[in-house]
Each structure stands twice: as C-alpha cells, then as structure tokens.
Amino acid sequence: MKKLIFTLVLALSLQPIFAQEEQEAEEKPDGWSRAGLISLLFNQTAFNAEWQGGGTSNYAGSLNLSYDANYKKGKFTWDNKVIADYGITKIKGEEWSRKTNDRFELNSIAGRQIKETNWYYSFFLNFRTQFDKGYEYGEEEIIDPATGDVIDIRQTRTETTRVMSPGYLQLGPGVLWKKSDNLKVNIAPATARFIFVNEMFTTTPGYVDGDYFGVDAGETTRFEFGAALGAYAKFDVVENVTIENILNLYSNYLEDPQNVDIDYTLNTVMKVNEFLSANFIFQAIYDDNAVSGFQVREVLGVGLTHKF
What pTM, to 2 d.p., does this model score? Predict the structure, then answer.
C-alpha cells in the first residue's frame, strides 16, 4: 500500500507538468544536440576547543554531472543521458571518510515516430552502478583479557558494495510518448533485466540464496523479465529555477510481480549567476531485493556550476 501511495503521489505531481505543455514543441532540426551541467558543491563546519554549543567539525564535497546527447533524423530519434554523482565527507575523530553519494547511470532510448503523432516505436537501455566501494560502519569493543574490562573502542567497517556490485542492465522494446526532449514517457512491457554482483559477496559461509540483491549463492548474475516504465520531465518553475524529475518503475513477471521497484530522482537547480548555483537532489529507491523499505538520499548545497 505504501508503494502504491508513493507511486500515485509521484504521478499526480507530474500532472501540472503535463498541463504546462499545451503547445506543440517546435520542430527540431536534424542532427545532434548536446547539453551538459557539472557542479561542485562544498560545505564545511568547524568548531574551536572553546565552543560550548556542541557539534563536530566536518567537511563535505560533491561532484555532479548531467549530460544529454540527442540525435534526430526525420522520424528517427535517439536520446542519451548520463548521470554521474560522487560525494564524500570527513568528520573529525572518525578514522575513515565516508561517501555521501555515489552513482553512475546511462539512459538511452531510440525511437521511430508513428505517423504524425507524439508516439514512437522504441527500444531502451538503462545501466546503473557506482564508482567506489561502499561500507557498513560500526564499533568493536577491545577487552582486556586479564580483567575482562573494556579498554578501548575500535571503529570498524565492512565492505558491502563496489563497482559493478551491484550493476543493473535493463533493455527492451516498447512505445515512447515524446512531447519534447524535456517531456517523455517510455513503456516497455517486455524488458530483460540483469543484476551483476561480485562473487565475494555470494560465496561467504552461510550465504542464503537471494540475500545479496536477489542473487543465488555462488552466482554473479540474476536474470529477470518484466515490464518497465520510464518518465522524464524537466521544466522551469520560475526564472533561474529548474526542476528535473526522473521516474523508473519495474515489475518482474518471474517473481513477485506485485513488488514494483521504484527509482525516483528530483533534481532542483537554483541559479545564482553564471557560475554559482544552489542544488537540491532527492532520490527515493524501493527494491525488495536490496532492502525491505525505501532508500532515501538528499543532497543540498551551494557551489560552482558550469553548463556546456
């Protein structure tokens, strides 16, 4: 029920966006069109020894890249989008720095227009992974063997993810509704999905089939077949404030088709001037092969921005 409510809220939130697209988009010339945005966000908090209000000195940085490369020739279109995010934070007193975000995603949709409509026969590909290792952090008590007393506490970390563990690849034919490069929905009822993992995570003693992103013991891949929906909407709220919505849904026909995977990203860019902007990123993921519940990520910061 919670997943259904969440999906409905997202769908309803897109209704005003569709309402704004009352006029037909201008006909684009044939050939390539490219656009990119790169931003570097940084923040720091520092306290001296006399500070009495509490708090821990820390710093954090995040590098975000979004790049579009779209091609058009007659009734044929090919849209490509790359999203890359990496962030890190260091807290005083902590032994290791920690990731705040880590994402690489490629979306590609090729389509051929159906007569003179906004509908296209399509074929899509989506690939997702990360750049760096991910860890689960904790603490371990160090016991004096002579007295049994705790003499120290040691910070620990356990590797849980890495590049291509997991990695996701989805592809399949479908139909695309495309009003413009900034407003489109792709429906793919026959989608193949591959989940890739490193064998070190599925060969540990006592591993149970499916515990690590749904992959069986000793295996490095999982195959699924189902239906996928991808929606993209980007618009200007007011001058110098742009909102980008990316929604991906997936249902696996072969196992628990009622458990729809959800991946939603809201990216808001508030331009200060040519080089400075404030960015807010919100991402919510539901994937019961990974964890039973929503994974939520928020990033807010002010930093340098460059369009190319």
Answer: 0.85
